[in-house]
Specification:
By secondary structure, the protein is mainly beta. 9% of the residues lie in helices and 51% in strands. It has one domain: Acetoacetate decarboxylase-like, CATH 2.40.400.
Length: 275
């Protein structure tokens, strides 16, 4: 994200408000400096992951132009709790996201990965930086800490106290074969920003994707998963009902559910526009 001009000088990344100098965030430190290697992201992450079988047609309707469904119709729902985040000076935040297996075909080649349909976070800072810099569809939700009781875990997401998502895994047992260095799927995103005053036009309208990444899994457990998005009225979720209700209508048959702890998280410095 920090580029060079024709003379080879570094160009500091800016973000509104611009008048106070270079922005600070996950891809640029104070005074426009780069972070040390692997220091910007989360050093510890807990992840609840649900892989669910769905139906092709409703999933295709959630893909933007130029992005197509890849393989069987699946939905990957992931809830993550990030701790010791370097760019937040050791603080953390929580994430809930919905992914669809997809690909983008271009003249220079095919990008295969997971399209991020929506991504909720419980802190403004990663939402703002991720939307403006990466083109990720980040919005706000209340995402409490994961709850564990013996061999089962549960999580929820809400807005202004109204719970719209619940996930649960029962009968967790250790899966030592899943421990170690694992590749993370490429994420595909639709970056869109409306043009001020010409609301039907766009200042930005293109596909972005992440670079291939690797994650160190330090513990992995598997169990029987259940997920549910709850339908809501406009009065209950004024800015989210149109999203949540579509997800609530999706058929979801959970085929695999895991609870993992990982070390390190990407700063997405390699995010690119898919030409």
């Amino acid at each position: 994200m920090v580029q060079e001009n024709q003379a080879g000088a570094r160009l500091a990344m800016r973000r509104m408000p611009t008048v106070f100098g270079p922005s600070v965030g996950p891809r640029q430190g104070p005074d426009g400096r780069s972070y040390p290697s692997a220091a910007a992201g989360a050093q510890h992450v807990t992840v609840m992951s649900f892989m669910a079988l769905s139906e092709a047609e409703p999933l295709r309707r959630l893909l933007p132009e130029g992005v197509v469904l890849s393989g069987e119709p699946r939905v990957h729902i992931s809830a993550s709790w990030l701790e010791d985040v370097g760019w937040l000076a050791g603080r953390g935040y929580n994430v809930l996201s919905v992914h669809i297996p997809a690909r983008v075909d271009r003249a220079l080649g095919t990008v295969e990965g997971e399209f991020v349909a929506v991504l909720w976070e419980n802190l403004a800072d990663p939402i703002i930086t991720g939307r403006e810099e990466l083109g990720m569809p980040k919005i706000y939700a209340e995402i409490p800490a994961v709850s564990r009781d013996g061999d089962q875990v549960a999580c929820t997401a809400a807005w202004d106290g109204h719970i719209f998502f619940e996930g649960r895994i029962k009968g967790l047992t250790s899966d030592p074969e899943g421990i170690g260095k694992r590749s993370s799927p490429v994420t595909i995103n639709h970056k869109y920003q409306p043009r001020t005053g010409d609301w039907g036009l766009a200042d930005a309208d293109y596909i972005t994707c992440s670079a291939p990444e690797f994650t160190l899994v330090t513990n992995l457990e598997r169990g029987q998963g259940q997920v549910a998005f709850r339908s809501a009225t406009w009065q209950e979720l004024p800015t989210l009902a149109h999203i949540v209700n579509v997800l609530a209508d999706l058929p979801l048959e959970v085929m695999d559910a895991t609870l993992a702890t990982t070390k390190g998280a990407s700063d997405f410095l390699g995010q690119l526009i898919v030409d």
